[in-house]
UniProtKB/TrEMBL annotation:
Assigned protein family: Belongs to the DegT/DnrJ/EryC1 family.
Database matches in Pfam families: DegT_DnrJ_EryC1
InterPro entries listed in its UniProt record: DegT/StrS_aminotransferase (IPR000653), PyrdxlP-dep_Trfase (IPR015424), PyrdxlP-dep_Trfase_major (IPR015421), PyrdxlP-dep_Trfase_small (IPR015422)
Keyword line: Aminotransferase, Pyridoxal phosphate, Transferase
Any one GO MF annotation of this record: transaminase activity
Record-linked CDD domains: AHBA_syn
Protein's UniProt name: DegT/DnrJ/EryC1/StrS family aminotransferase
Length: 380
């Protein structure tokens, strides 16, 4: 298969370093629209809660098949405000994956609730629905699955557990823009769905950004109140809200980039297919995509027993890699209060010792992918 990217016409020297991530090709692909958007907002004199935000919210909701989207300041706020809108209160428990970026857990803590970790399926790295029931207590209020690395979690099974126990479901979609679950877009599979538009995410702003998608008009209205000081009418405050708004510049940039997201996701899928093909049979654990699912390929994560040596060898050859993530949330000093120890979540702990994310971005060339494959095969 050949993947000649329309985004990266440059031909790099055969031994030039390969960065872990290069955001320039995506900017160049949308440059005219992005630059026009920046100037339009600068000249408008209107910077918050205006027409740019409304236009992006409409477009983004439509792109994920949800009735509505509320822009907020970042992905962590999207999660925390969505939990609050769903009624999560101090003293409640929310079930989270034991292996996720710590923001998932922090959003629960920000509501005064307790994150209750559940181990992943060791093949898909996503929350194992079979393990959820054992973690449910009378204080459990919601389930918070994550579509880790861009692969959709098993939402039918997770929603079934939630329905059986009367729980709400919020999914953390920060890594899963344009991912597909059994023919349905991620972002319309739960009570609410939280997004990050952090610059390195698959749809990234030029600064921080986030959003919540959903169908229930009452929940979406509550989110708009919570993000704006708890106020529907200026200077009238119904609840103790926050200041968490997606500003007009970021909304305009995101709207300019959104039309290219689908093609860029297809490009990621082509690059991932090349990596899977080229690394088949190598002594590595490769990502698994179950039937019926289309990953967004935010990250291409392999597992290796001697991960640190593999990473060092690739670095020696100028190939950038990262570890997502080196320390599981239950072993972070920030969560010492929960009193977990080594061995409490063995699947997650083994992953954190073994995972390595290889370079993959829209605009990466076939030659770069081939070099990564050769280097990994030689070093693994
Ligand atoms: C990036 C990320 C977040 C947080 O998003 P920010 O916009 O950085 O606050 C939450 N959850 C996951 C899984 C993420 O990858």
């Amino acid at each position: 298969m050949t993947t000649t990217s329309p985004l990266s016409p440059r031909t790099a020297a055969a031994d030039a370093p390969i960065p872990f991530l290069d955001l320039q090709p995506v900017y160049r692909a949308a440059q005219a629209a992005i630059d026009a958007a920046l100037l339009r907002v600068a000249g408008s004199g209107w910077f918050l809660l205006g027409e740019e935000l409304k236009a992006f919210e409409r477009a983004y909701a439509a792109s994920v098949g949800a009735a509505d989207c509320a822009g907020v300041a970042n992905g962590l706020d999207a999660l925390a405000l969505a939990l609050q809108a769903l009624g999560v209160e101090p003293g409640d428990e929310v079930i989270v994956p034991s292996n996720t970026y710590i923001a998932t857990w922090l959003s629960v803590s920000q509501c005064g609730a307790t994150p209750v970790p559940v181990e992943p399926d060791p093949q898909t790295y996503n929350l194992d629905p079979v393990r959820i029931a054992a973690a449910i207590t009378p204080r459990t209020r919601a389930l918070l699955p994550v579509h880790l690395y861009g692969l959709p979690a098993d939402m039918d099974a997770i929603n079934a557990v939630a329905a059986a126990h009367g729980l709400k479901v919020l999914d953390d979609c920060a890594q899963a823009h344009a991912a597909i679950y059994k023919g349905r877009a991620v972002g319309s599979l739960a009570d609410l769905s939280a997004w990050s538009f952090y610059p390195g995410k698959n749809l990234g702003a030029m600064g921080d950004g986030g959003g919540v998608t959903g169908d229930d008009p009452a929940l979406m209205a509550q989110l708009r109140v919570l993000r704006n000081y708890g106020s529907k009418v200026k200077y009238h405050n119904e609840v103790k809200g926050r200041n968490s708004r997606l500003d007009e510049i970021q909304a305009a940039v995101l709207a300019a980039k959104l039309p290219l997201l689908q093609a860029q996701t297809e490009e990621r899928r082509g690059l991932a297919a090349m990596l899977l093909d080229g690394l088949a049979g190598a002594p590595l654990q490769l990502p698994v995509v179950p039937q019926g699912l289309d990953s967004a390929w935010h990250l291409f994560v392999v597992q290796h027993d001697d991960r640190d040596r593999l990473q060092a060898e690739l670095a020696r050859q100028g190939i950038g890699t990262l570890i997502h993530y080196p320390v599981p949330p239950h072993r972070q000093p920030a969560y010492a209060e929960l009193d977990y120890g080594d061995g409490d979540f063995p699947i997650s702990e083994a992953m954190h010792r073994r995972v390595l994310s290889l370079p993959l971005w829209p605009g990466m060339t076939t030659a770069q992918v081939e070099r990564v494959i050769r280097a990994v095969r030689a070093a693994a």
